[in-house]
Design brief:
Order of helices and strands: HHHHH
Oligomer: single chain
Distance between the termini: 29 Å
Number of strands: 0
Shape: elongated
Strand content: under 5%
CATH topology: Four Helix Bundle (Hemerythrin (Met), subunit A)
CATH architecture: Up-down Bundle
Radius of gyration: 20 Å
CATH class: Mainly Alpha
Number of domains: 1
Helix content: over 70%
């Protein structure tokens, strides 16, 4: 069993990866305005993307990205480097031509894939550790009562 924050972090990046793949597909077929591209059905991302979309014209891309990152709940378990990764993606989204945006999406898809695989490995290691600690605690308690 891994912690709820670690599980939420994995789920958040799985949803972010789904969003990135969908965005890449939409960019390949249509040229939509940035507000349209920021729509998502992913539960953990929707509030962040709505904030980005709402603040876009008032604060610009960088300011809106900063506001969007600041509303991510701490219960998602994101680290500061995770937030920097998301900020890097959001602040550059819509800043160049279609081909560059497709390359931008591909870059972040590969970065998020690497992050997800390392997070899953870490979760598996911690899960084994907790299981092993439980077994040794049980053995210790059994010896104590003998």
């Amino acid at each position: 069993m891994i912690s709820k924050r670690a599980t939420n972090r994995i789920q958040f990046f799985e949803q972010f990866l789904l969003y990135l793949n969908g965005l890449r597909d939409r960019l390949g077929y249509t040229l939509s305005e940035l507000r349209t591209l920021l729509l998502s059905d992913e539960k953990m991302l929707s509030q962040m993307l709505k904030t980005m979309s709402g603040k876009l014209f008032d604060l610009g891309r960088e300011g809106a990205a900063h506001e969007a990152i600041s509303i991510i709940p701490s219960s998602y378990g994101l680290k500061s480097e995770d937030k920097k990764l998301i900020y890097g993606f959001l602040s550059e989204l819509g800043s160049s031509d279609c081909d560059s945006q497709l390359a931008h999406c591909e870059l972040y898809i590969s970065l998020v894939n690497g992050l997800l695989s390392s997070q899953r490995e870490e979760a598996a290691k911690k899960s084994r550790l907790y299981r092993l600690l439980g077994v040794f605690s049980g053995i210790g308690a059994g010896l104590f009562f003998l």
